[in-house]
Amino acid sequence: MEMQNKLTQYLELFEKARAKVSDDNIAMGLVEQVGKDLRVEQMRGYSTVERDSNESQPATEKQIGFLKKLGVSVNMSDKLTKSQASKMIDEAQGQLAAC
């Protein structure tokens, strides 16, 4: 039933867009963009929850192993969080890509 409701909403949006721009291709592009925007908003909401939990959870063994594989020295006495490890991985990969 939820899928039917979404389909109805997209069709109504398409009809409104087509009425304003008088072009099916432009109207479809607008509907596609709205769909993308909605997905981004959903991901941002989810990632905020995930990010908050990662701020306090310790880094995983897999993250630490990957950091070492990337050549990043990891002091095991530091209480590295998942979030910190993730940032370090992104930075290390960025540096490798820049080389």
Present the secondary structure layout.
Elements: H1 2-21, H2 24-56, H3 61-69, H4 82-98
Helix pairs in contact: 1-2, 3-4
Can you tell me about this structure?
- Helix content is 80%, strand content 0%.
- The chain has helices at 2-21, 24-56, 61-69, 82-98.
- The model has no long low-confidence stretch (mean pLDDT 83).
- It folds into two domains: 1-56, no CATH class; 58-99, no CATH class.
- With 99 residues, it is mainly alpha-helical.
Structural class: mainly alpha
Annotation, overall tally of beta strands? 0
| Helicity, as a percent range | over 70%
What's the domain count?
A: 2
On the 0 to 100 scale, the average pLDDT is 83
| C-alpha end-to-end distance | 51 Å
The major pleated sheet works out as: none
Catalogue the unreliable spans.
none
Q: List the helices and strands in order.
A: HHHH
Total helical segments: 4
Structural shape? elongated
Radius of gyration: 22 Å
Strand content: under 5%
Features:
99 residues; mainly alpha; 2 domains; 4 helices; elongated
Structure in a nutshell:
The chain is mainly α and 99 residues long. It contains 4 helices and no strands. The longest helix is centred in the middle third of the chain and has 33 residues, at 24-56.
